[in-house]
Amino acid sequence: MLEGDRAVLAVSDLRVTLEGRVVIEDLSLTVEQGEILTVLGPNGAGKTVLLRALLGTVPYEGAIEWREGTRLGYVPQRLPYIRNLPLSVRDFFGLKRRAVQDVEEMLDAVGLDRLLAAKGIGTLSSGQFQRTLIAWALAGDPDVLLFDEPVSGVDASGEETVYGLLGRLHRERNLTMLIVTHDLAVVHRMSSTVLCLNRRPVCQGPPLATLTPENLRRLYGTEVAFYEHDHG
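-> structure tokens emitted (232 positions)
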């Protein structure tokens, strides 16, 4: 159950089974308003499935409770098929109810030129496309943003600007964020809390205290090194 005035999300004893295979089990967590929770784990660990469960798009056992009235925004890992459709950016926003009225405002919010609203979605650079997805998620003024590998397919220089953007949005809007990422440097720099997931939780807590060499070996089964980058 949600406890305290700042709690936004409470998950208790979550278990997700897909096609007869247990993907997530024994997961409990609480997220507070303004928190940045990052989710780490190897491929196939259940990270994306966790986001889908939180969005209510896959069946699950246990309890997921959002604070009443919480508005969610979601940036999926990949939407390659969208880029092949004959849609302008404005048309793309029109796929989301009421979002078409917010196009220019949302493009401003993510540092894109308003003129991009008339451009074909398939003509955008990878960095512009990722920012457009973030703008799309912001339409409707969400309280919580969920990101599945927010820099997937973006080159190194674009990664810096996307993570810098997320940091700015967090500061300006006091957004709560749940981020699936593979970038340990980002976890250390941005996160309030990290969840290490490999079907079940391996470790959970503040990044500096949680991401010890021993815990990373338990999570990935091998030595893991990370390199510091300045993401703004």
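The CA atoms of residues 111 and 131 lie 8 Å apart.
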